[in-house]
Design brief:
It is a single chain. By secondary structure, this protein is an alpha+beta fold. The protein has helices at 2-31, 34-47, 55-67, 71-83, 89-99, 103-120, 128-142, 342-347, 360-372, 403-432, 439-470, and strands at residues 149-157, 173-175, 192-194, 200-206, 212-218, 229-230, 241-246, 252-257, 267-272, 284-285, 296-302, 307-312, 320-327, 386-389, 392-394. The longest helix is centred in the last third of the chain and has 32 residues, at 439-470. The chain starts with a helix and ends with a helix.
């Protein structure tokens, strides 16, 4: 009889110990401490292996596996929990379906979770309403996936990945935080954007509670840097904003945010600055295929070569990001949302499928231009870099043997230099206008904008004339 009583007491103690471990693990998962929850569950199972059959155990360990990005293991555990009638598993299964671009299935799981919540009165750590908001953004983006041509894909370690972007000098530079001219502002910064003339910088900086916001600084005419100033908080959409890139017009800003307009993790946004007011207009999510349910960031566009770059962790390469290089469209064109392959194009299952085989030479010439960036001054004199096809370039006027092409190139260079000078002047006026709102400055900005539009059109014509002249002999 005593042995039976002792056995029953031991069983009760095991149940109490298990119950306490589950309660504590549940609270840890709710608080987001998945590592501690996993360790607690491991200890409980070591004492009683039969506990692995518990629906709640499968759910909690599945949540830990999801946090660790072990998605296959998470799915197996969560499906077991759901099969045993454990409602909270629907929340994570919905997230897994969402990340697999199965948006209809994700919506079903979220609906199932809401029904469970209504019946039980329980609320998970992360609300389903937030996930439904992300799902809605992704569904809208899927209806207008931009048709782009990706010409290269590069997998790199996450640290300092941006240093592998190859940009023309006219596009500016992406640098590490060590180049920020204020030592007290370097801590916590991932990178910084520097304008072509080196007189403007923007970067993401954590505030006193760790939220990252964009800040910028302007170098004054005497060489000193103006105090660091916060960029419009509207850009962060209530959360983080980082990885900025300012176009050469000084108005168009690309950056990444995980705020309310994101479909999950960091998304890339674009915002235009009002030169008259100095503030940014409402930022816009640039959509798919650039953005995804994963982290997408650090968009940079090289207008001179017509290519863009961005980074993503959608391919789930441990410790690495994938950088895509694509041809920038003059006008946006979207895929037909009813096409059978729309999901493959949105998620970039194979970037080569975005290409047109007949344009392979154009892609290679563009890659050749990119590969030469930064090298042209190593072994020869370089006054300019003019592509002539098949990966070849002219670097000085002496390369032009055809007199007609020589004269056409001369005219092109003069127009290009005049345009560059006006663009630098306009950029400077736009940057300084918030500090000096004189009417004559505003009028000069408007006048220069109209002039530049005309000059860009003329420059395109002059460049075409150079190519036509070269056909007669190089």
């Amino acid at each position: 009889m005593k042995k039976l009583i002792v056995s029953l007491l031991c069983s009760v103690c095991v149940l109490i110990s298990y119950s306490a471990a589950i309660d504590e693990a549940r609270q840890l998962v709710k608080e987001g401490d998945f590592w501690a929850a996993r360790k607690l569950l491991e200890s409980a199972v070591a004492a009683n292996p039969k506990l692995t059959a518990s629906a709640e155990y499968c759910y909690l360990l599945g949540a830990c596996e999801f946090d660790a990005e072990h998605y296959d293991e998470a799915k197996t555990l969560l499906e077991k929990a759901r099969a045993k009638g454990y409602g909270p598993a629907n929340l994570y299964l919905g997230r897994l379906a969402f990340m697999n671009y199965d948006f209809d299935r994700a919506a079903e799981f979220y609906d199932n979770f809401k029904r469970y919540r209504e019946k039980s009165g329980q609320v998970a750590g992360e609300t389903v309403e937030e996930l439904e908001r992300q799902l809605s953004i992704a569904e809208n983006a899927m209806s207008r996936v931009e048709k782009i041509v990706i010409i290269d894909s590069i997998s790199l370690p996450t640290d300092n990945f941006f240093k592998h972007y190859k940009l023309s000098s006219s596009a500016g530079r992406l640098v590490g935080p060590e180049e920020i001219p204020f030592e007290e502002h370097r801590n916590g910064a991932e990178m910084a954007f520097v304008s072509e003339d080196g007189d403007y910088m923007m970067w993401g900086e954590p505030d006193s509670i760790g939220n990252v916001h964009l800040v910028d600084a302007i170098r004054l005419t005497n060489g000193d840097w103006h105090d660091v100033a916060p960029v419009d908080d509207n850009l962060s959409n209530g959360r983080f904003a980082d990885f900025p890139f300012m176009m050469s017009d000084g108005v168009t800003l690309y950056y990444a945010s995980n705020g309310d307009g994101s479909m999950g993790g960091y998304d890339i946004f674009v915002a235009s600055r009002d030169p008259a007011a100095g503030a940014y207009l409402q930022p816009q999510n640039i959509g798919m295929p650039f953005n995804s349910p994963y982290n997408d960031y650090m968009m940079a566009i090289d207008e001179e070569n017509g290519v863009g770059w961005w980074a993503t962790d959608r391919n789930r390469l441990e410790g690495k990001v994938t950088i895509y290089v694509y041809m920038v469209n003059d006008l946006r064109k979207n895929y037909d949302p009813d096409d059978d392959y729309i999901i493959d194009m949105a998620r970039i299952s194979d970037f080569r499928k975005t290409q047109n085989p007949s344009d392979e030479q154009i892609y290679q010439e563009t890659l050749d231009i990119i590969s030469e960036l930064g090298k042209e001054g190593e072994n020869k004199r370089v006054d300019f870099k003019f592509p002539i096809g098949q990966g070849e370039f002219y670097y000085t006027m002496t390369d032009f043997k055809n007199r007609t092409a020589f004269d056409a190139m001369n005219a092109y260079l003069k127009a290009s230099n005049a345009l560059s000078n006006d663009e630098r002047k306009l950029t400077e006026l736009r940057r300084r206008y918030p500090l000096n709102r004189a009417d004559n400055v505003k009028d000069e900005i408007l006048k220069l904008e109209k002039t530049l539009e005309t000059k860009r059109t003329e420059l395109t014509k002059l460049k075409s004339e150079v190519y036509r002249s070269l056909k007669g002999g190089k």
